[in-house]
Amino acid sequence: MSLDTLSDLLRSVRVRGAVFYYVSCRDRWSAMAPPAREIADAVLPGCEHVMEYHMIARGSGWAAVDGQPPVRLGAGDVVMFPQGDQHVLSSAPGIEPLRRTADWVFSTRKEPKPMPISYHHGVVEAGAPLPVEEADMVAVCGFLGCDLKPFNPLVSALPRILHLPAGKAGDWVSRVIDQAVIESSSPRPGGDAVLERLAEMMLVDAARRYLDSLPEDATGWLAGLRDRFVGKALSLMHERPEQPWTVDDLAREVGLSRSALHERFMRFLGDSPIHYLASWRIQLGAQLLRETRRTVATVALDVGYESEAAFSRAFRRMVGVPPATWRRAQAS
Predict the structure, then answer these.
(1) Which residues, in sequence order, are bridge partners of residue 144?
(2) N or C: which end of the chain has fewer CB within 10 A?
(3) Among residues 164, 191, 213, which one ends one of the domains?
(4) Where in the sequence is the domain holding 24, given as residue range(s)?
């Protein structure tokens, strides 16, 4: 497996991070966060997909989404909600939560961030953190955003709730959380940029740790990345998208028959190798259109199309508009 394949995808889908809240809680407490899609324009404007995360700096609590058992959280843990689900954090399962509505998030979006919030005895105080020594739980909470279009197979490969226990992380995670607490509780010049980078690191770590934890019979893009044969084929297509790959070529490179490789792709990704390649080429082309001044014709050749016309037809079929139109929209 090539971890560069994961890096390629994360770069191409423009991961962005923001830390919004420094939360301190005491005694009996419970808070509900709205679905990320309802507050995306307030927390990460322009992002197609937004997910919330919480870094537990002190104490313990519980996290839950509808339809799944609650998860116990401890100091040093990170919990993420990759599908953007409405969720609850609480001191114990089953407590009726205070609801943080979308209207409240929009009404406070111009407040300096990270914004302190305290919960205690059913009371919420925005802008007033509890003294650390009085808090039963302290968390740094924020959001991660990324593109879904033209092509992002990672988001659908992640679960609704992703718990990253402290005990299975390296020391760097505890240091990241400590630094996030410092930057959140005592804002300094450049703090926003530091927190954004820390948030982005969380997503990379989450994807890698989730990949490591997958059972042997798992399917999906991350499971395919881990598979000896599918992972190598994905790596080849990501490293050399301009090459005129055929299924026979890929099968020969990875050491399988044509039919066996096709079958493995369908089992793990639900897609054929060539259709995956076409999707990745369009995603890579979109990245080049957005980030460079290369002509559409040059981009077409760079990502493996023989002509501008062929690339434009494929791009329009997948994205809905021609490449030049899409580029102008991204710049506006």
Answers:
(1) 17, 51
(2) C
(3) 213
(4) 14-213
Q: Do 125 and 205 lie in a common domain?
A: yes
Q: Which of 155, 189, 213 is the last residue of a domain?
A: 213
Per DSSP (E only), the strands in the chain are 16-26, 30-33, 49-64, 71-74, 78-81, 87-90, 98-99, 115-120, 123-126, 137-146, 162-164
Q: Render pLDDT for 216-263 as a digit per residue (tens, 0 to 9).
A: 999 999 999 999 999 999 999 999 999 999 999 999 999 999 999 999
C-beta contacts of 100-107 below 8 A and 24+ residues apart: 100/31, 100/32, 100/33, 100/34, 101/34, 102/34, 102/38, 102/39, 102/42, 105/34, 105/39, 105/42, 105/43, 106/39, 106/41, 106/42
pLDDT in tens, 32-81: 999 999 999 999 998 999 999 998 989 999 999 999 999 999 998 999 99
Residue (of 167, 135, 132) closest to 60 by Cα position: 135
CA distance 106 to 80: 21
